[in-house]
Design goal:
heterodimer, A: mainly alpha, Serine Threonine Protein Phosphatase 5, Tetratricopeptide repeat, B: mainly alpha
């Protein structure tokens, strides 16, 4: 009977590994869950819980990952480290910080992901993230329309904003100069909407630039320090 | 004055789930929408634009959802001022090089009818 059980679960775990290798992570998790619930062998259960937690993070199912990471055996010396991963992805930064307090690299990664660049740089000095000021972006656009977007690295957006603002502004000016009251109100209203929209857009564009450059820095960090090696 | 009368008639005919009193309770956001006449007027203007000018103009927008839909959603979701700013910003970003900023800033969507467009919904 025991031999038969081992044969059945042994095959299940092999099949789950095969699915994982093929990249069919959803079905691999399903098979690992089958092993976890049907097996009585603690080592096999632990292996399945490990795999489910790891693969659940990979597919973005962080609550599932946390549930199974908590089920990893207490004898696993890396359990604390592993528990930090789902907490980080769930946005529970303080809890993840508690689990990773002894590991500078993981802590730096956590700080970087949560946007605390200064603290990350204290732990790993050569992290560089290009940051720009959204207020300066808005201010530049208030002086010369479109320049805030050029400052945010979007030259085409900036040039079009400049063109739109200049044309509506000039139309309003011409209508005022020739005493066409209705046209003046129409164009100055349009100009005001485009002008304020450009200032708002520049502010948002610089914020987006900062978000994208932070994401790039996090990805570079993950590759450079091979973050997932801490799981295994 | 005649145009205004037609415009307001159009609006009056469309308000309805509340004013007709069919017993269907509109969601909270809808109450807020109809309680602000200026917001309502702006949203109606966008709908009229979509039904008239946009249909004649064809598919010229570089985004999914299109600028008018984005503006409508932005004004509906946020307050009138912020919605107009967002819509104005979107119109200024809508040019032939919009896809140039994908995938950093926008996603890309393949639409069977509209082709390849930059994906930028209201957040």
């Amino acid at each position: 009977m025991i031999t038969l059980l081992l044969l059945i679960f042994g095959q299940s775990i092999e099949f789950a590994r095969h699915l994982e290798k093929e990249g069919d992570l959803f079905r691999a998790i399903y098979e690992y869950k089958r092993v976890y619930y049907e097996s009585n062998d603690p080592a096999l259960k632990d292996l399945a819980a490990n795999k489910i937690a790891y693969l659940s993070i990979k597919i973005g199912s962080y609550n599932d990952a946390l549930r199974y990471a908590e089920r990893i055996s207490d004898n696993d010396p890396l359990k604390k480290i592993k528990l930090g991963f789902p907490h980080l992805y769930l946005g529970n930064y303080e809890t993840a910080e508690y689990f990773w307090k002894d590991n500078d690299t993981l802590l730096a990664w956590l700080y970087l992901k949560s946007g605390k660049l200064d603290r990350a740089q204290l732990l790993v000095s050569d992290i560089s993230v290009s940051r720009k000021s959204p207020i300066l972006g808005g201010f530049l656009s208030a002086i010369v329309p479109g320049t805030g977007k050029i400052y945010a690295g979007r030259a085409f957006d900036g040039l079009l904003s400049l063109l739109i603002n200049v044309s509506t502004g000039y139309s309003a000016y011409r209508a005022y100069r020739y005493g066409r009251e209705l046209e003046f109100y129409l164009y100055s209203g349009l100009f005001l909407i485009f002008y304020l929209g450009d200032i708002y857009g520049s502010y948002v564009a610089v914020n987006e630039y900062n978000r994208v450059s932070l994401e790039k820095a996090v990805k570079d960090f993950e590759v450079r320090f091979n973050i997932w090696k801490y799981w295994f | 004055m005649n145009i205004l009368a037609i415009f307001w008639t159009l609006i009056a005919f469309d308000v309805p789930e509340i004013s007709r009193g069919k017993g269907k309770i509109a969601p909270e956001s809808e109450y807020a929408l109809y309680s602000n006449p200026v917001k309502f007027l702006v949203l109606k203007s966008i709908r009229i634009y979509q039904a008239t000018v946009s249909k004649v103009q064809g598919d010229v927008c570089n985004f999914i959802p299109s600028c008018s839909h984005y503006g409508y959603e932005a004004i509906r979701k946020y307050d009138l001022f912020k919605g107009i700013l967002m819509a104005s910003d979107r119109v200024q970003r809508c040019h032939g090089f919009a896809l140039f900023y994908s995938p950093d800033y926008y996603g890309v969507r393949e639409d069977s009818i509209r082709g390849t467009k930059a994906f930028d919904p209201v957040k």
